[in-house]
Structures are given as C-alpha cells and as structure tokens.
Amino acid sequence: MSVPILDIINNISFYGWVVVGGSVLTVLLSGVVYWQDITKRSSKFFFIFGIINLIWGFVYAFFEGSFGTADTQTGMVMLYIVAAIVAPFLFLFLYVFSVEKSRISFWEYVALFLPYFIIVGIMLAFPDIIVKYVIVDGEPSKMVFGNSFWIYAAYILGYVIVGLFLLVKKYRESAGIFKIAIRNLLGAVGFACLAAVLMSLFSPIFFGGAHDFFWIGHLGVIVFLFVGTFILAEYNFWNIKIIATELFISIIILMFFIELIIAGSLSGLLVKFVLTLLVLFSSFFLVGSVKREIQSSDKIESFLKILDKMHERLKILDKKKSEFLSIASHHLRDPLTAIRGYASMLSEGSFGELSRPVYEAVEKIFESSGRLITMIDDFMDISRIESGDMKYVFVDIDLKKLVSEVFTEMKQHAERMHLAFHIKVGNENVFGEKFITVGDEGKIRQVFSNIIDNSIKYTPQGEVFVTLVKSPDKKKIIFGVIDTGIGMNESTKEKIFRKFSRADDAGKSYTEGRGLGLYVAMEIIKKHEGRIWAESKGEGLGSTFYVELEGKP
Ligand code: ADP
C-alpha cells in the first residue's frame, strides 16, 4: 500500500464517518436482535446482514479516503467487490424471513453465492470492464463504467427484486398485526434498496462520474437496519425496553474495547482490560435483571388485565343475581303475605271457631310464613344494598318512643319463650331527657327488632334486657340488648356481621338462621354513620349487642 493508512483515515469525509458510525451502531442493533432469540433464523440473517453492511461501510470509508491517490483503483474494485456481497445477504434475510424455511441446503447456498464468485472473478481478472478510474489532465478525476457494468447491475437488481417480491408475497398472505409489521418492513427495505441502487450503484452515471452521493445508499441500508430492529421486535413480540438496554450496554462495551485497543502503556492496558471485564460481567447481570423485571412486570400487567376482565364480568353477574333475587323475592313475598294474613284471620276466629288441633296447625302456618317473610325481606335488603338501591328517608326519630314500641311488639314473643323481658329507657332521674336522632325510622326499627329477636332466639333461658342510654358526653345515644344466652367467643364476635355468617353452634339454638340479619343491620347503621358491635364474656356467658347513633341536640 503506497499511501499510509493514517493519510487515508484523515481523508475520510464527514459522510464517510457517518457511514462507519451508523454501520457500527446498526451491527450492534442487529446483534441485539440476534441475541433476543438465537434460534430464530431470520434474526441470525439480520445480524449477518448487519455485519456485511459494516464491512461494506469500512471499505467505503477506505475507498473515500484513498480517492485521488494511487490506491484509488484498488479501493474502487474492493468497494464493488464488497458491495456485491451485500445483495445476496439481503436476499438471504428476506428469503428466510418470508419463507420461514428451517434449513437451507448446501446446494442452495452454492446456487445463491455462485453468481457472486463469478462477478468477483470477472472483476479480479478484468478490473476495467466493470468500473474504472480515469484521470484527465486539468479535470477532476472521475469514475467511469466499463462495457460490462450492466452484468454487475443486473446481478444486484436480480437479488433485490426477487427478495422484495418474496416479501410482497408474504405480506399478501399475512393478516392482522403481522401484516402491518411486514408492510413496515417492506417500506424500510424498499427505501434502502432504492437509495442503494440510485445513489450507490448508478450515481456515477447521474453525477458525471462523481461518487459524492455514495453515502446516501449506505445511509438507506443503515436506516433499514435501524427501523428493521424495531419492526422485528414488534413482529416477534419482543420487549423494546430490553432491546434498548442491551443496545446501550453494547455501546458501552464497544467503547471500552476501543479504549483497550488504543491504550498507550502496558499498565494502562491492564487497568482498561480489568475494567472492560468488570463492565462485561456487570452488564451481563444487569441485562438479566432488566429482563426478569420486565418479564415479571409484563406478567403482572397481563394478570391485572385478566383480573380486570374478571372483575367486570363478576360485577355484571352480581348485578344480574341481585336483579333475579329481587324479582324472585317479590314474587314469593306477595303470596306469603296472603297466607300469613289468612292464617291470622283464621286463628282470630274470623271464619268461625276452630278446634284445638286446627288452631295449633294454623298458628304454625302463621309463624312459619312469618319467618319466611323475614328471610325474604333480608334477601331483598341484601339485593338492594348490593345494587345500591336501598333508599333512606332521614327524619328526626324519637328513639325513646321507638324502642318502647319495639319492646312492646316483642314482649309476647319473649314471654312465649319463657324469658324475663325488661326495659330501661333513659335515666328516670333526669326529667324530660330527649333521645332524638336523625335517621330512617323504618330501618332503625328493623335493626332494633332484629337484635332483640336474636337475643330471644339465642337465649334458651334467663332474661333479655333492653336499654337506651346516652354516652357520658351526652352526644351519642346507645341502644343495648343484654341477654343471658349462648354467648360467643372472640372470633365469632368478628364474623357475625358478615354476610351469611353465623356462630358454629348457632344452629343448635335456631336452625332456620341464615346469618343475614346482622349484616343488613351493619349496612343500615353504617349509612347512619353509627356503630354496631357485640360483646360477650364467652360461650354460654350471654351477649350484649350495642348500636350507637348520633344524638340530635
Ligand atoms: P341469624 O340469626 O339468622 O343466623 P343474624 O345475622 O341475625 O342471622 O345473626 C348472625 C349470627 O350471630 C347468629 O347466627 C348467631 O350465631 C350470632 N348471634 C346473633 N345474636 C346473638 C346473640 N344474642 N347471642 C349469641 N349469638 C348471637
């Protein structure tokens, strides 16, 4: 080589460096693509194409740097020889991507590369018949094409056209997001081919033998490699974040290697070598952890999506269930009310005197239908609570009066169960003490009845004591029901306010219970911004239920 390499490097134009830099970057990118899935043949050929492009870029830079010197003819022939290999490798990538063939046989490789070796042979044997370098005195030197340039052009165009044709075919056969990805790939590779053919292959014809726009052809291919990376990532469902991290790390490692190569002293070389190793190792772990993190967050994201969908579906089902419950309950309640009404009239003798056994049977019908109605009411309340249809009418309530009324209503029932039944409303020493709260009267009555009714149900013997007092600061009103019944343990105290929740042995005292009354009571009291809770010293030691409501001054 007659011109020192440093002179050649100094001679390289800005665009030459753009080509070299861009090719290095895209070889890293295509390497990252290959790294995503080394079993994928299209990724592998994409990477190989990236490497070939890098070699082409280096040779172009050499050619540029040597232009106008004694090495020009060599540089030019080298450039054309290397440029010629770009076409079959591009074809190879497009072929593997489009046909997705698992194996390419030896003979297929031979068939694919044979034209290349023929072209190279021709160029080496007769360098002038394809392209030559002409120096005319007094004029800028220029490139001219020889008589056989058309063979070279036809060779390049042949690969490009067939490759593009395969991709178009694949595009037409695909659907959905794959079709979109292939369309984008077609756009990128089409642009690269156009740029390379016009600006690298034919540009000396258009520009009077000047090679000034060769770099545009390279740039087209670099753009294709760059865009192609993201299209392939999309096509293969790879994560762009992982690709970006890997690219970033590859750039850092590359920089360390360059530093290593140009290290001045032995000690500097050693330090840089150790540093490079450290970076290499830590990058390896970094990429691994980024991958794991992204994969797990992707998993969580997809789980969340599934959960979201399930939640929506459950909400719909729940609404349907509530609607069904409410319709069914209405249809059950109406005939039951009629049965209960007639039973009551019968037992009161409205249709004549009843014999003892008939009277007792009618009483049983009356009680059972009453229980059924309560149960249906609970179901209806629940369906209203859950569909948000529970309506409240807030008015001033005289709790003293209300509690006394509920007590009177329940008295007969308690006596029938042979229980002592007492009441203490307010402090008799305080004259004219008022127990007013703001609330829905019907609903508060329902809660109080339910609590007293429970105490009667779950107290086999002893007494039930109903109280109404004020908190020490007189701001709250506390309704309490104390019984000497079955009591409850700590865990039962917590769970009985949940839907369908009962004490384990509740069935012994009252078989028909459904564990709904206290849940409904809790919901109602919450709407009144009050509190409801249970206390008990333990099983068999009785219970006390409290409801605390805001007192109106
Ligand atoms: P139900 O009485 O229909 O089962 P509730 O929601 O009214 O439904 O009560 C839930 C559970 O709370 C009861 O099954 C019972 O286990 C417990 N419970 C309620 N009141 C008392 C009480 N006074 N003494 C002991 N346990 C009670």
Task: Name some characteristics of this structure.
single chain, alpha+beta, binds adenosine-5'-diphosphate
3D structure, described in words:
By secondary structure, this protein is α+β, with helices and mostly antiparallel strands. Helix content is 67%, strand content 9%. The chain contains 17 helices and nine strands. Strands 4-6-7-9-8 form a five-stranded mixed β-sheet. A two-stranded antiparallel sheet has the order 1-2. α1 crosses α3 (41-66), α2 (14-36) packs across α10 (240-261) and α11 packs antiparallel against α12. The N and C termini lie far apart (107 Å). The model has no long low-confidence stretch (mean pLDDT 87). Residues 450, 454-455, 458, 483, 485-486, 488, 496, 502-503, 506, 513-519, 543 line the site of adenosine-5'-diphosphate (ADP).
Write a concise synopsis of the structure shown.
The chain is an alpha+beta fold and 553 residues long. The chain has helices at 5-11, 14-36, 41-66, 72-99, 106-125, 149-173, 176-201, 203-206, 214-235, 240-261, 266-347, 356-387, 399-416, 441-457, 490-495, 506-509, 517-527, and strands at 131-134, 142-145, 395-398, 420-425, 436-439, 463-470, 476-483, 531-536, 543-550. Helix 4 (72-99) packs parallel to helix 6 (149-173).
Number of strands: 9
* Small molecules held by this entry: adenosine-5'-diphosphate
What amount of the residues lies in strands?
5-15%
Q: Distance N terminus to C terminus?
A: 107 Å
What fraction, in percent, of the residue positions are helical? 55-70%
| Biggest sheet character | 5 strands, mixed
User: pLDDT below 50 for ≥5 consecutive residues: which ranges?
Assistant: none
Principal-axis shape? elongated
List the total number of helices.
Answer: 17
Strand order, sheet with most strands: 4-6-7-9-8
Q: Evaluate the radius of gyration.
A: 45 Å
Q: Structural class from helices and strands?
A: alpha+beta
Written as H for each helix and E for each strand, in order along the chain, the element string is HHHHHEEHHHHHHHEHEEHEEHHHEE
Mean pLDDT across all amino acids? 87
